[in-house]
Amino acid sequence: MDWGSLFFKFNGRINRAKYWLAALVYCVINLVLYVLGAVTDSAAVQALNSMVGIVILITSVAIGIKRLHDRDKSGWYLLLFYVVPGILMTAAVGMYVTMEDATLVSTVLGLATVAIGVWAFVELGCLRGTVGPNHYGPDPIAPPAVLPTRPPV
């Protein structure tokens, strides 16, 4: 699989190694942008950071979908892993700030956010994909099929 397919295609499967390779690429890009932003505080760097952030968001969705496909799960789980924690955390902070006795509810919502994050980490980054082909394609780490050869006559 080439880099373009890895980051920009939404179908197929990838194994854990390619998932963590993409995570490493994202970390390096963010580190470079952070250092660049710290050295020069210009609008151009902020605009570049925003554009790169959008590209990283789109490619991380592609990476996540392919990783879920390797686990024989629908890519729609990414809504649970990416969107729901943000909603829960926003609700937790909003309740804590606006209501007097909302500490317990805010804590429960925060813990639910952490639980979903741990589940996403384990599901996407730790568990092995389906052995053999599944609904989404062939096993990405299966050895290539070797055709038997006939001995010379």
How would you describe this structure to a colleague?
- It is built from 5 helices and no strands.
- It has helices at residues 3-8, 16-39, 43-70, 77-98, 103-126.
- The radius of gyration is 21 Å and the shape is flat.
**Helix and strand string, N-terminal first?**
HHHHH
From the helix content, strand content and strand pairing, which structural class follows? mainly alpha
- Main sheet, how many strands, which sense, barrel? none
Query: What's the alpha carbon Rg, rounded to whole Å?
Result: 21 Å
The unreliable regions are none
Q: How many E-type strands? A: 0
Give me the number of helical elements: 5
Mean pLDDT: 91
Distance between the termini: 38 Å
Q: In what range is the share of β-strand residues?
A: under 5%
What is the number of independent domains? Answer: 2
- Report the principal-axis shape: flat
Helix content: 55-70%
Write the layout of secondary structure elements.
Layout: H1 3-8, H2 16-39, H3 43-70, H4 77-98, H5 103-126
Summarize the entry for a quick read.
The chain has 153 residues and is mainly alpha-helical. The chain has 5 helices and no strands.
Task: Write a concise keyword list for the protein shown above.
0% strand; 2 domains; 153 residues; mainly alpha; flat; 5 helices
